Structures are given as structure tokens and as C-alpha cells.
Amino acid sequence: MKRVKILLAWLVLVMLLAACGGGGSGEMEVADVWGRTSPMAAANGAFYMQVTNNTGQDDKLLSASAAACGTVELHEMYMKEGDVMGMRPVTAGYIPLPKGETVELKVGGLHVMCINKVQEFNIGDQIPITLTFEKAGKMDVTAVIRDTTEMPSMSQGG
Ligand SMILES: [Cu+2]
Questions:
Q1: I need a labelling partner for 113 at 20 to 30 A (CA). Which of 19, 58, 89, 95 fits?
Q2: How far is the CA of 75 from the centre of ligand 1 (A)?
Q3: Rounded distance from Cα 62 to ligand 1 centre (Å)
Q4: pTM of this prediction?
């Protein structure tokens, strides 16, 4: 019985150390960053990516910026009246990134909105984006523009 208690105490200690061991267990990983082709006539574009939080603590994606865009916002899709999908800035003001989880920014869901873009986005273009996390700080990533003509189109604009 005593043995079990010691074992339990040991386990609790290990868990505490893991929970608040000052990070260092890993990093914020951002993969598969891409955007859609977009002619100059279209004012806005969108970027998608997968963010995996390996830092060992919950974090948030607070904002993003890109020289190719006048303004960058974090957007989510939502159902408007009449079964129409719309998009808007994330209601929380940030994108939650629970530790150990991968959050996918994808077509029809969360995305990084590029408003008043200053250049055309053509296939193969590489667009530098800076992401700002609450705890992980700033991270520079590069979005690659892909051909998405075979993908189901969603309403442009916004
Ligand atoms: Cu949007």
C-alpha cells in the first residue's frame, strides 16, 4: 500500500513537471501554408495552414500580417440566414491553439484573410506572412499560391 502511494506521488510530481516545466518540450509548428490564385481585380485573398502546438502549453494565434496585404484578419466561416455561408473576423478575437493539438485553417473554415492585397497571387508565388502567437511570439512563414480551380468554389469577397 505504501508503495502505491509513493508511486502515485512520483506520478503527480512527473505530471506537474511536465505541465509547468517551462516549455522546451517542442515548438509551434506551422505547415502546409498556402493561398489561392487571385487576380489584381479581386481585392481580397485568403491563406490556409495547419498549426500544431507542440509547446506544451495552450496558446493563441492573435494576428497575422503580410506586406502583400493592406490588412490581415483572422476569419471564420459561419452560417448566415438562408443557408448562406459568410465570413467574419473570429468572434473571440484570436484562434485558440490547445497544446498538443493541430488546428487546421482550411477552405470553408478558419482562414487568414488578406484584405486590399497589393499584388496578384499567381501559381507558385511565395507570400511571406508573419504570425503572432500569444506565448510563442512571432513566426515568419511563407504561403505558396496554388491552383485551386478544381476545388469547389465558395463565394468570393469579404
Ligand atoms: Cu475571410
A1: 58
A2: 5
A3: 16
A4: 0.77
